[in-house]
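Take one protein record:
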Amino acid sequence: MSFVILCAIYWAGPDAFEAVLNRIFPVAGFLFVASIAVMFYLACFKMDKILDGMSRSEVVTLRSPIKGQCFRSRYEALFVVWYVLTFRALALKRGHLDEHDYDNFSIGLRWLIRGSCSSIYFVFFYFILVEWIYEYLSWVHWLLTTLDDLVWWIAEVRGGFYER
C-alpha cells in the first residue's frame, strides 16, 4: 500500500498538493464569510425566537438573562444551542435538552444553526490542518526530489532515456 501512495505522490508531482489547496481556499473562505453572515443574522434577528423555542431546556434557561446583551453572549448562546441540536442524544442523556423543545423547534432555524456553526468549525479545522501540513510536512518535497533522483539514476543505469 505504501508503494501505491509513493507512486501516487510521484505521479502527481510536487505542485499537485498546492494546486488542490488553491482550489479549496476560495470555497472555504466563502463558506466562512457566509457562516458568519448567517450567525450575525441569527444573533440580531432570531435570538428571541431561538431562546423561546428552547425555553424548557436547562442549557438555555441558564443563559436566558442574556436576551438583550452583547454579541459575544449571543454567539455563546448560539453555540450552546448548536451543541444541543447537533448532539441531541448526548444532550438528552445529560439533561441539557428537553425532548418537547427539540420536537417543537423550528426546522428552518435548526438547519440554519446546525449548518452555520458546523461550517465554521469545519473551516477552522481545515485551516489548522492546512497550516500544519505546510509547516510540518516539508518531507513531501524532499521525498519527491529523492524519488525523481532515484528514477533518473535507474534510467541512467539501464541506459534508458529519462527527462527531468
The mean pLDDT is 79. The chain is about 80% helix and 0% strand. Residues 15-137 form one domain. The CA atoms of residues 154 and 160 lie 8 Å apart.
